[in-house]
Amino acid sequence: MPLPIPPPVRRKVGNILAAVLIAFSVAPLPARAGYVRIKDITETEGVRANQLIGYGLVVGLNGTGDRLTNSIFTRETLISMLNRLGVNIRNEETQLQTHDVAAVMVTADLPAFSHSGNRIDVTVSAAGDSSSLLGGTLLVTPLMAADGEVYAVAQGALAANSFSARGAAAEVTRNVPTTAHVANGAIVEREIPFDLGARTHLHMSLRNPDLTTATRIAAAIAQAVGPIATVDDPRTVELDLTGRDAVSTLARIGDLPILPDTPAKVVIDEASGTIIMGADVHISTVAVAQGNLTVQVSESPEVSQPGPLSNGQTTSVPRTNIGVTTGANRRMAVLRGGATLRDLVTGLNALGVGPRDMISILQTIKADGALQADLETR
């Protein structure tokens, strides 16, 4: 006969079980294989970065700057900057012999929703004949967009993940010393207005256009949020956000899981011998045979010594070995209609086919019309 449980103990056990059930109910479920979030495969209209560019000077180089006699624009820029700072050397420009200054192009990306005062990274690249930007400092450089307006100002010490050493008869260089970065080197001065919350219609663009994937996105949105999504084309899904909070709705849509569809495609890089094949690649009935005629010739000359106490001379006797391989042990394999990627790889591996030979086989199968996929050669 079981012993009775006192009421305080019963309540404590009940609280523990309730806590365990709540923990299991709020724990995230494991992601299903192959599923991705919608925000990972799409981009929202208007939410984009803008490219900025500027021209400036880098100073403080250890003799690796531009030669002013060759880079006329560097000399003129240096003279103009010194004149603005109150140093008049216009009449003595021929005496400028510094090698510690370099003209550079400064580039950056202005992220979406950047506000005045935010900092962004910049990339600095030599525009003249400077050999290295290591150790330099970028002076104040306005960064403009395509409309000609200044959106940020860059300045700061350069960080170059490279080095260059030179001796009398040798030189070593790692990476590119004429390119450097300035982390958080630019301050945003002008904002690009975009009121996302006030939009009633938005377009979501697929990074990999596919009509099946776009349709699945619209169906997932309709199931979770409502019938607000319409597929315009394989790349675009239109959202009708009338009467809804655009920001919260987009946040909810972005976390929805979707199984993207991938086209049947084979990508071949002949330079490196790399082959990439999608899972939906199918092969019609085809017979494959692979064999090569290999002729190997090797020379192994032998030395012939004269007998003792003879008047002979040491000579070299030629010895030639010739081997011929016809690939007779290679057999023809038959791939039945509807063969998948695994069947194709298994069959070619059974023939002992290497990547280089596999490239020519795939190209031949495609020419025969048996490869039911798009073949792209790079």
Q: Outline, from the CA principal axes? A: flat
Helix/strand/pairing category = alpha+beta
Number of strands: 25
Could you describe the largest sheet, including whether it forms a barrel?
6 strands, antiparallel, barrel
Features of this protein?
378 residues, flat, six-stranded antiparallel beta barrel, Gyrase A, domain 2
Can you put this structure into words, describing what you see?
The protein is α+β, with helices and mostly antiparallel strands and 378 residues long. The protein has three domains: 50-188, no CATH class; 196-258, Gyrase A, domain 2 (2-Layer Sandwich); 266-295 and 322-377, no CATH class. It contains seven helices and 25 strands. Strands 3-4-5-10-7-6 form a six-stranded antiparallel β-barrel. Strands 2-11-13-12 form a four-stranded antiparallel beta sheet. A three-stranded mixed beta sheet has the order 16-15-25, with helices on one face. A hairpin with a 5-residue loop joins strand 6 and strand 7 (150-157). The protein starts with 6 loop residues before the first helix and ends with a strand. The model is unreliable at 16-31 (pLDDT under 50). Assembles around the rod to form the L-ring and probably protects the motor/basal body from shearing forces during rotation. One of its GO terms (molecular function) is structural molecule activity. Belongs to the FlgI family.
